[in-house]
Amino acid sequence: MKKRRKTTTIIFVLSYLMILLIIVSCGSNTDEISDPVSSVIDAEETSGSEDMPDMTPIPTQPVETTTPQPIYPGPDIPLVPNDDIVEHIFFHEIIAYPEKAFDGDRFEKNYDDYMVTVSEFNAILESLHRNNYILVNMNDVWSEYTDDNGEQRMRRNTLMLPEGKKPLIISFDDINFYEYMTHDGFMEKLIIGEDGEIWAQGTDPNGERVISQELAAVPVLDRFIRENPDFSMYGVKGCIALTGYEGILGYRTQTDANNDTDETRLTRMREIARVSPVIERLKQTGWYFASHSYGHVSTGTISYYEVVADANRWMEEVGSLIGETRIFIYPYGSRLDGSDVYETGPAFRFYHDLGFRYFASVGYESYSRIKPDIGAIICDRISIDGIRLRGSRTQYLRFYDVIDVFDPLRPSQYGTQW
Ligand SMILES: [Zn+2]
Questions:
Q1: How confident is the model at residue 71 (pLDDT cuts 50, 70, 90)?
Q2: CA-CA distance, 241 to 92, in Å (whole number)?
Q3: I need a surface site. Which of 67, 262, 279, 345 has the fewest CB within 10 A?
Q4: How many Å apart are CA 76 and CA 163, to the nearest integer?
Q5: What homologous superfamily is domain 55-414 in, according to CATH?
Q6: Domain map (residue ranges) of the chain
Q7: Residue 281 neighbours by CB distance under 10 Å
Q8: Rounded distance from Cα 292 to ligand 1 centre (Å)
Q9: Which ranges of 27-151 does DSSP label H, i.e. alpha helix?
Q10: CA of 92 to the centre of ligand 1 (A)
Q11: Is the pLDDT of residue 27 over 70?
Q12: In 3D, which of 352, 354, 396 has the Cα closest to residue 378?
């Protein structure tokens, strides 16, 4: 069996070399051989309007993968310019075990207000897909350019999407697996499984160790896109917003000035070594990251100096691990300097100097504004959580009907308004 595979491999390599030889010897023919993606981009560039050369539509870039991922759209699916509002919804980590999260303890109401359960998350993804939404990367929706005065500004790109598809960004806040949540109905960390893919590890309500792809937001969305590739543009997934005070992704990578010993430093280094391949795999498979501040601080109400100290610590302890990001997701939706829509204060400028360009709060619409005085985007995201599930039906009908989605395992005493 093994031998045959070896022979096949040798034949494959030999024929590959032969093809390569033919291509090289044909010289001019090499021009015609290009990968389908770059030829799509070339076609778009040449078809751009002549008097506005800067407005060339920029497609969502394909995602690099080490193992085969379903790539949608294939070359047979035509792309059309799309200038629709890009809807932006967000979730927190999902509740793996509702019976445990909703057990009447002091955290129950918090989970009920701000989280959705696994079954709700699955039902919402199915409904979004049925309603023709397609995931795009926030970094592809706007881009930076130099204006006539030599200033760096942001502008909206025209996305190239399959006909009938509606662009959607999903972000996930606080994918840190905070201590209070683990063992209380949530998984504990994201890990790399034996297959090289992302899995979640945790403990079930009986105290048994669980490794699953069905019980945390990241692997659930991964699986959903594996099964429904047309829910994602080139395999794009979601934006993961991270704080740093209890580490990231379930790994305790944070420093602790009150407990700084050789042992804690060694533990921290081990955690960093463990989380690094997880970060790498997430990036390879279409995930991207955002800052959510280091300490989940109320960015709009603390002092400038506190904003700076918090941001520097995030850059040192989280930015150093996840790499560059341009997205800042306000904790509590609290806008820098108290307001950033019509003003640009010192804290906002500080974040801009760190490289941040997208500043996302929370609202009832997928509002966005290109700031005229500095290269930055202000935007709102629509929360999907227990408060909205219980409180709003009609506002969300374009995404899902809460009646079909609502988990009956939620505590009944908090009621619904539909
Ligand atoms: Zn948060």
A1: confident
A2: 9
A3: 262
A4: 13
A5: Glycoside hydrolase/deacetylase (3.20.20.370)
A6: 55-414
A7: 20
A8: 7
A9: 36-47, 98-101, 108-114, 118-130, 138-141
A10: 8
A11: no
A12: 352
